């Protein structure tokens, strides 16, 4: 019988990471420095740096796990976490949508068709759950989770994300290291771990890059800095793609 980490063991390993692991900030800055110098359109600079910064977040998580010998038990086809509310800025949402627009045609059309069907099916419930005030209501996550409304980018047939490589920080940094059944049996399992603190490095560097583009008087499809400070549910931002 496979032995999984206990809650206490997970907490101890997370404390080790907090005490001993140093985030490699240079990896984040190297990306925007590269794209600042690249001879390409501003749109490409923004979308490509966004994708690469997200990839660095995943790399940092992998390195943290390795530093304390902790292996995720999340598996392909497990999508219980895809029913949580995801809050992102308008800037992030616009870049995600632009990245999807640049997907190969067949994939892009499949996502657009899926979203159209999604809002036809869940529209009323989406309106209800997104009326929850994520700034003031301390229980909004649990209330949203109880609705059992999936993420708009979840393919319910395969239980896979349709835009996996550009999934935002809240999705990317939520991980289980114990028996996977805790996610099935609990709406908000206490054993799961969030590395969402990496958002500080990711967004700090992305913001610096946008400031650089703003000073150069070309931020393409981003209205900077307004888009950075407008936050909403991802399910609301994706209503128009």
UniProtKB/TrEMBL annotation:
Pfam families: CxxCxxCC. InterPro entries: Puta_zinc/iron-chelating_dom. It comes from the Bacteria. This is YkgJ family cysteine cluster protein. The lineage of its organism: Bacteria, Bacillati, Bacillota, Bacilli, Bacillales.
